[in-house]
Amino acid sequence: MDQAATGKIALFFVDASHFVMGCDFLGCIYGIARRFVKTYSGRSRYNVLGAINFMTKTVTTITNNTYITASEVCELLKKLSEEYAGKAIHLILDNARYQKCKVVQELAAELKITLVYIPPYSPNLNLIERLWKFTKSRLRTRYYDQFDEFSKKIDTIIDNTSKGDKQLIDKLIGEKVQLFDELKPISSNTFIDTKIRPRRLA
C-alpha cells in the first residue's frame, strides 16, 4: 500500500462476484397483514471478475453470464497489462483454483505481473470484497424484471466507484485492514501445526 501511494507500483485487489437476479436481492416488509413482495422468478446470474485500483478506485472488469474460469483471469491480466503498460503491477487475490493455476501464473510471469495470494480463509485481506457488498446494497433498492437492466445497473455502480462514489469507496477501501497480531493460544489445541501430519488409524 505504501508503494502504491508513492506511485512505485499499481496495486489491485482482485476477486469475482456472482450476482444472481431475483435471489440475492429480495426485500422484506414487517407487518401484521400478509403482503406479497414482487420478485424475479428466474436464476439468471451476472458474473463479474474485477480488479480495483487501490489508489484511484478504478475497476477493471471481465463479465459474463456463464462461469468465471482461468480464461477470464488471463483476459483480465492482459487487459490490466495494456491499461497500465510500463507500470509494475501487483495483484492481491485469493487461492481460487482458476486464479492459482499454472496457465494464470505463467501468463502473469510473461506479462511481469506480480501475483500475491492471501492466506486461506482470510477474505478480510481482499479489500474488493467490500466493493461487492457495497454493490449488492445498491441493488437491493429496487425490483428488476429484465436481466439486461439488472446487469447494466451493476456495471453502472462499479463504474461509478472512481467518480461520484469515490469519496465513499475511499472510506470503504483504505489502509485499514483487519489484522490479528500477537495471538496467544488459550490451550494446546488452539492452533494446529500444519507440519505435523495425523497418523492413519489401522
Structural commentary:
With 202 residues, the protein is α/β, with parallel strands linked by helices. The chain has one domain: Nucleotidyltransferase, domain 5 (2-Layer Sandwich). The protein contains seven helices and five strands. It has helices at 2-5, 70-83, 97-100, 102-110, 128-139, 147-159, 166-172; strands at 10-20, 45-53, 59-64, 89-93, 113-117. A five-stranded mixed beta sheet has the order 3-2-1-4-5, with helices on both faces. Helix 2 (70-83) runs parallel beside helix 4 and helix 5 packs across helix 6. It is globular, with a radius of gyration of 20 Å. The chain starts with a helix and ends in a 30-residue tail after the last helix.
Tally the helices. Answer: 7
Taking all residues together, what is the mean pLDDT? 84
Q: Which shape, going by the Cα principal axes?
A: globular
| Fraction of helical residues | 25-40%
Distance between the termini: 51 Å
Give a count of the beta strands, DSSP E runs of length 2 or more: 5
Determine the CATH superfamily. Answer: Ribonuclease H-like superfamily/Ribonuclease H
Sequence of secondary-structure elements: HEEEHEHHEHHH
Tell me, what is the CATH class? Alpha Beta
Number of spatially distinct domains? 1
Fill in the CATH topology.
Nucleotidyltransferase, domain 5
The main sheet comes to: 5 strands, mixed
Strand fraction equals 15-25%
- Give me the secondary-structure category: alpha/beta
Based on CA atoms alone, the radius of gyration comes out at: 20 Å
Any idea what the CATH architecture is?
2-Layer Sandwich
How would you write the strand order of the largest sheet?
3-2-1-4-5
Q: Which regions have little confidence, pLDDT < 50, spanning 5+ residues? A: none
